[in-house]
Fold:
Amino acid sequence: MLLDSRIKIIAISLPVANEDQIASWIDMNHGPCKLVSCSSEGIPKRYFFAHSSKLLPLFDPKGVELNSSLSDPSGNFGHPLVGKNLESFLLCGYDRSSLCHILTAADVNGMLPAIVVFFNVEGCSNALHDAIAAVGKGLLSQAEIHKMEMFLAELHQSHSDIGNHLDAVDLEGLHKGIATYHEGQLPVWQEFILKLEREDLLKVIIVTERCLLHTEMFAHSIIIPTINRVIRNEVSSIPCGRFMELVGCAGRRSYDTEGTVVFLKNLYSGPHEIADLCLITTSGLIHNSSHHTPQWSI
Structure:
């Protein structure tokens, strides 16, 4: 691909450690190649950890150590894993109570629009029910609800059978400014959700990680219920590169001066593990190198 004469510009989305090697390889095999490095910084991020009805900064004021208020040796943070709380954690893998509290106060705290990120479709479906119940009357104004109904009418007019593929909870969520976006949906419905997002009619979008990173979707806040993924019955933390991409979706250029990233507790990780992952990915300790190894003999 890199030898195709029609390609004039190659853009690398993340800083890599061997971009000079790639440029040299292209220069030798493709023709003159100039390496241009952009030093502009992304939108600053604020990191929070939510537990119960509290939303606390993840780090101390210097941003280098865990907030002392989160250094609970028991790891409970107001949510002992017993009784209903334990059952809730086991069923969904994240702190449902904290998520509901965040969404309830999101508008007041200036955290909207927000994207809630899961690693599976089931998590999105569970969170949609929780979010609808948490926001009460909804997050849209009367004018926005009217506009939403107009878009829905247009959708039904152009796709008369779309109603046969939707659940009542999907429509209820839309009228409250909440929607899901994941791989299990019809393409026409996915396009409709993206259209509503561009029109600023969705205040909370619950997405899978894969779908989020394959769209140009950004929000003021990114809510990450868990940093752990279950693959082949094994639990592992999200790779640092993936984590950087998710965090990068917090903050909209030309709209926000800073982005907000909120983490929730889950069965496998608390504030200590989350803080370690944040520090590793933001302190320069991780160097993203291209998987392309220059082959000078080509």
Notes: The longest helix spans residues 142-158. The domain at 45-282 is CATH 3.40.50.300 (Rossmann fold).
